[in-house]
Write a structure and sequence with these properties.
single chain, about 240 residues, alpha+beta, 9-stranded mixed beta sheet, two-stranded antiparallel sheet, 4 helices
Length: about 240
Amino acid sequence: MIVIGSGNMTRNGLINNGEAAILLVAESNADVGEHATSWDELWAIGKVATDKDIADYRAKYKEAKKLRKTLVDLGVSPPDPPSPKPGQDLGKNPVWEVHPKSANGVWIDIGSAMGKGREVELPRVLMPYFGIQDGTPSPQSRQFLLSNGKTKSLSFILREDNQMWRISFSKDVPGSDNLREVVGGKLQRSTKAVSFIRKTPAAKIAISFDDVGGQDYQKWQEASENANASGRTRAGPSGRNYGFF
């Protein structure tokens, strides 16, 4: 059995990038011998990398990385997922097929957000939707449309420890009350999610809350999955689902 594909043995190659591969299954000993011969011929083409080869590659990689950042800033290439810290649970990151800048909306579970659920942290991969890129100074204020028809200025603040952007909902934001209930004297994980949606590119971003598993939530989730743009902040029960569409 042979798998031939474009993905390399890196995190992006195995998890994030769009790759293609084909599976070849030998049906006879003759097929096995043919596959082995083909492999040996390909292997013979290679050579052991010298220090100069590695240095040349590093220089080319560095230059290509600069060009990639330009494409990401232009919105024609998806952003890289955040680099994991040593020992960090990698969780699940979306394999972007569209760019957050061109999305109509983003959403995320409230989870165990601080401030009784009012201080919600968003992964930086979603922030281009709000016009926030890597290197954008913190804080950043944006105008949002509330469900009561009023407009409200809210700020995003970058957390240096986890590189997430935190938005705090004040008490006058409809739907932000009771995001996390207290049961038996203990603050529970929220059963709510928040969405940020604009109907037209020029429109203000509307904020709304919905039950996880509710009708609107299912629409957000389905739309994100159809765009192959749903993810999870980390694996396990403490992770939060998110996506854009």
